[in-house]
Amino acid sequence: MRRVIVDPDAPQRDAIEEAAAWIVRGGLVALPTDTLYGLAADPFQPAAVARLFAVKGRSASQAIPLIAADVAQVRSHLGHLSSAAARLAERFWPGPLTVLLPAPPALAREVTAGTGAVGVRVPAHAIARRIAAAAGRPITATSANISGEPATASPDDVERSLGGHIDLLIDAGLTAGGPPSTIVDVSGSSPRLIREGAVSWEDVAACLRA
């Protein structure tokens, strides 16, 4: 594994491009997000997704969340946003709110755990957004840890846990930590809370009522 130290406020362009290149060719990259460190792979490559599950020891019954560079990238690769999804995106992105959308056929089936829905958000972290932009597609962002172990805000923990199994670690120091993203299902006719995290359900509901 290669570890590259970057400035979280002004990340080096070559580090961003290296991370994107690994992802596009099927590699695994650990990167910082606005909450914890995430593990990035190309969700449109079944072999890359299978490797991600194997490295984490993750159950096939657990779906994998995605992050994107911006709303335009979400629409381009995952499809139309409902009025509820668009309203939540406008209010909470970039930020720790994941919305569940109908999954496009091109997405690796394992990403959705066979549910037909995929979770995505635009993170409030410049490095994560820039890597997704450079990769030209949304990327996975499941926590960078072995399943069953605590998720981490520390790149040192990532290296100890996954260093022998991933291709690149983008080290921007400690992330903010805190609760994971809130997950809201907007794939059906009525939005529903799947997991409450950094954004309260009260704030989500208020946004949808506005």
Describe this protein with a few key phrases.
6-stranded mixed beta sheet; 11 strands; single chain; 210 residues; alpha/beta; DHBP synthase
Strand content: 15-25%
Count of DSSP strands: 11
DSSP helix count?
A: 8
Overall geometry comes to: globular
Distance between the termini: 48 Å
The main sheet comes to: 6 strands, mixed
What's the number of structural domains?
Answer: 1
**Helix share bin:** 25-40%
CATH topology, by name, is DHBP synthase
**SSE order, one letter for each helix or strand:** EHEEHEHHEHEHEEHEEEH
CATH superfamily: DHBP synthase
Segments where pLDDT lies below 50 for 5+ residues?
none
CATH class wording: Alpha Beta
Strand order of the largest sheet: 7-4-6-5-10-11
The overall average pLDDT, rounded, is: 95
The gyration radius over C-alpha positions equals: 16 Å
Topology:
Elements: E1 2-5, H1 13-24, E2 29-32, E3 37-40, H2 46-56, E4 66-67, H3 71-78, H4 83-92, E5 97-102, H5 109-112, E6 117-121, H6 126-135, E7 139-140, E8 142-143, H7 155-162, E9 168-171, E10 182-185, E11 192-195, H8 201-209
Parallel strand pairs: 1-9, 2-9, 4-6, 5-10
Antiparallel strand pairs: 2-3, 3-8, 4-7, 5-6, 10-11
Helix pairs in contact: 1-6
